[in-house]
Specification:
The chain has 207 residues and is of the alpha/beta class. The protein is built from 7 helices and 7 strands. It has helices spanning 6-16, 23-35, 40-53, 89-98, 126-134, 148-160, 186-194, and strands spanning 56-57, 64-65, 79-86, 103-107, 139-142, 167-170, 197-198. The strands form 2 sheets. It has a 5-stranded mixed beta sheet with strand order 4-3-5-6-7. A two-stranded antiparallel ribbon has the order 1-2. Helix 4 crosses helix 7.
Length: 207
């Protein structure tokens, strides 16, 4: 694809580096912004700048936040005894959209995957153990993608918390094994949360 402008080419290349955005879509967006006279491109540039310069990580659950605590952790009426464990922020957002969970969350930031070089030390597992120890958590709902990596992570966390009086449950397998949690429809995901089951480790012992 030949470009009449180096600036346009750089813009298209930058946009097309985003997930799900191909060259043609990036060109269409760039030309739209180029022709726009409403100040849309300036607003987008300002929003992106604030995204990188002002956005914070919640010190409690590791969700993105405008302040030191995210909006969810700052809500006092939620169930303080129940914690939902998710892999990524987008999974948290998907579960929130179901309106079937009233507790708090903890974002791991990934899953244990030795083949990819991701170990427990690379995730927010130690801060999870601290929360369960200090906040009187009674139940952990493991809302992780039903994959080998997800099951490995659940097993590891259950072993780390074996000395604490906390129930561990997993979402019902309405979400197909090998599927990504964020792509499950709201109805299926909501029912999976409501129909969660006690977690059993490889020895068949319920947690």
């Amino acid at each position: 694809m030949k470009f009449p402008s180096k600036i346009l080419e750089d813009t298209v290349n930058s946009l097309s580096s985003l997930p799900g955005v191909g060259k043609k879509t990036a060109l269409r967006l760039a030309l739209h912004l180029c022709a726009d006279e409403t100040g849309k491109s300036t607003k987008i540039a300002d929003a992106l700048h604030r995204l990188k310069s002002e956005l914070k990580e919640c010190r409690r659950c590791h969700m993105i936040a405008d302040d030191h605590l995210c909006q969810i952790c700052a809500e006092p009426h939620r169930n303080k005894r129940m914690l939902c464990i998710v892999e990524h922020i987008r999974d948290l957002m998907a579960i929130e959209d179901t309106q079937q969970f009233s507790g708090y969350y903890h974002v791991l930031g990934g899953l244990i995957s030795p083949i990819d070089g991701v170990g427990p030390q690379d995730l927010h597992i130690e801060s999870l153990v601290q929360r369960v120890t200090n906040e009187g958590i009674e139940e952990l709902i493991m809302a992780l993608s039903p994959t080998i990596e997800g099951d490995t992570t659940i097993f590891y966390i259950s072993k780390r918390l074996a000395h604490l009086p906390v129930r561990i449950s997993t979402i019902a397998r309405g979400v197909a094994f090998g599927g990504e949690l964020e792509y499950a429809d709201e109805l299926t995901l909501g029912r999976s949360i409501q129909s969660r089951t006690p977690y059993q480790n490889q020895n068949g012992l319920a947690q």
